[in-house]
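Session log. Operator J.P. requested a structure for one protein chain; no other inputs attached. Running the standard single-chain path with token output.
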Amino acid sequence: MRRLLVHPWKLAGLAALAVAAGVLIYQIALFVMVLWYSVMPPRMTTFMAAEQGQLRSANADAELHYQWVPYDRISVNLKRAVIASEDSNFLNHSGVEWDAIRQAWEYNRRQSEKGSARRRGGSTISQQLAKNLFLSESRSYLRKGQELILTYMIETVMSKERILELYLNVAQWGEGVFGAQAAARHYFKVDAAKLSAMQSARLASMLPNPAYYDKNRNSSYLQSRTRTISQRMRQVAIP
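Structure written below.
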């Protein structure tokens, strides 16, 4: 029998086509999940799963602190504080602010060279939500590219109110502490709806490095940042 020979270039083309098809199917699956989260609360995010795995490596019985609360049961103070701290142009942008990313990268590089734990997040709230829901803490161009794709999916499908509602419920606020309700109980023994302006400013100031500030609550930088955010909150509009 004659053996059928396939030219190497054809094999490469078929392989590339298979990879492209796999990537497309993966993106479609992610888009379906974005649609799901536009109406349903997440039971667990990738960040939560990673944190739970890390905690259980030291204590098999470790549990996360997480309780979903709807938008109208989260203090207006916290909504204002988080926008003032993380994304002052939240209501106006379409998901990504390139200048903010560049400025944050330069700031964090300088702080790293000084050996400082201070960090500034250049990502918008929409980007941070995309990362928290679906991605990991790993830093690579591939992960960043996927984050941008997810961000535009989220901005296309969800209202600003829903994006903020999701973010406030899944953001990490300490070791094993996720979401506004768990954070309010963990730090102040109140419900998320009862957070004062100063308490909200303090929680917002912790977001760039929550695990560190959970253990270093009397940091002078944290206190200074809290005062700055509390002053900015007055000019912030919320969805």
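Operator note: The chain has eleven helices and three strands.
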